[in-house]
Amino acid sequence: MINSSSDNVKKIGSINRRMFITGSLKFLIMIGLVSRLFFLQVKENKKYLTLSDKNRIREWKLAPVRGEFHDYFGNVIAGNFEAYQLHVIPEQVEDFRYVIYRLKDLLELSEKEFQKVLKKKNEIKPWETLIVADNLSWNKFSKINNHLYDLNGVKPVISISRNYPYGDNFTHVLGYVSQANEKDIETNESIKKNFVPGLKIGKVGLEKSYEKDLIGTNDIERYEVNAYGRRISQLEFQKGEKGKTLKLTLDVEVQKLANELLKDQAGSICVMDIFTGEVIAMHSSPSFDPNLFVFGISKDDWQIIRNDSMKPLVNKTLQGNYSPGSTIKPIVALSALENGIINTNFTVKCTGKTEMYGQTYHCWKKEGHGFVSLRNAMKQSCDTYFYEIARKLGVDKLSQTAKKFGLGEKVFGDLFDIEKKGLIPNTEWKKNALGKGWLLGETMITGIGQGYIQTTPIQLCLMTAQIANGGYKIYPKIIANEENKNQPDDKFTPLYENSKNIKIVQDAMFGSTNEVMGTSYRSRIDDLKYQFAGKTGTAQVKKITERDRELDLKTFEIPYEERDHALYIAYGPYINPRYALSVLVEHGGNGSTTAAPMAKKLFKLIIDRHTLRQTINKKKYLEI
Fold first, then answer.
1. Is 326 part of the annotated catalytic residue set?
2. Looking at 209, 268, 326, 520, which residue is catalytic?
């Protein structure tokens, strides 16, 4: 019995131990499960806390501050100003209908403006920014800020927009900015990187060419916001960089005068330093105010510009292909001298017309000029003389000389995507382009700047500058603070075979302007400080018939679109020359009466401002 009881006690103890161990294990397992659940809950809570933080912190990219354009003397010709905008993100608005009607009342939007906003809203994604207004007055901007408590999802924004203080004076050089579109964003990495709603980017001109340098980088603000998306406090501000300021070689005062001289006329004026290639003025007329495009041009303004018969949207300086008329004669003379075709003693008898294979070629002077040498032919612009030397020279040799002096090629390379090359024809070109052989008569009319030959005003200015500097290659530039960038190896390379020939042409151009019988004699300046040499040109826009010759109408009697273009090229001062220019007036009638007088006014200002320009140069070198 005793043993039996002892065994029972042992069994009971063993059972109790197993139960204790089992219970303990269960307890530990339960504790483990609870701990695991607690850990998972903490992790989940942390996750939700992080998400909550993300919901409470908002990041705003502000519009980058665009770099400015200055003229050579530091005048701001394209700057910036603060624009007050109003943005709405539809998905953050609880009651869009209520908010948008409140905004309509507060901003006093017309029904047309209101419908435009609604249309924009339907065109964007709910999470994208709707720009309700992009140029608010300070009063309206303040009014919105005072009512933000009632406008959840509405964001007043102080942005940066472009301003052109000189209006239409620099439009065809600078271009203009306008709101970036999808294509702009996709094709330009700088725009894509710095894009914010309402971002203004360059559309044409230097604004477009230097977009990467000008655009700058965004300021970034991080704010804590409440459940309604309203700002509570600023957490961080990351300052962006302003775009690069570009200094141009242009002179505001000369550019303004060019604009005034071409007022109410279609044409171009270019002025260039004959040694540095710096462009002092480059104006195309008519122009338009680029400020109209900054916030989107109205339909009425756009129609006025677009339908103007003088085509203000066309940059005539770079895009205009014109027959050079008699302004080509200095190159024809130089080519004939360089190729040994003529010398200064070579003379031609001008009777007013020349017969060649049954075709009559007229001189502008009906009764003719009599016997003329090179100098007299240039002075009086005798067509008969240049028919003859062009015939003896041949179009291929003439073409080679013209191209050497910058005709038939883009002057600024790839800087302006709109610039035209013009056309300097030769026998090979006609065969390839038209599938026909070259005719002798075509050579003769090329010699007076008619026929297939086409040039741009900036090319004529470059050609004149290289004649004026003694026949040396230069490269025009319009950005002043890029002088050490991509300097060509052939700069200042002689373009002549014999420097004496350049001097002969220079002297002939002097006679054309400063001697009796010269075609621009009435525009001369006797004061040696301002004295200049030049060559007039009159380019036909239609074939002159025998009836036209009989009628011999005055310019004002001819329909505007049938009048000849008026041209003039010149350089000055004649002693120690420094500047060259080209003037073109569409349908101006005659170079001597329309274009040359403009050059007279220009040279007085250009040379007066030369000393001031030199002061800037000396200061620049002292700083170096």
1. yes
2. 326
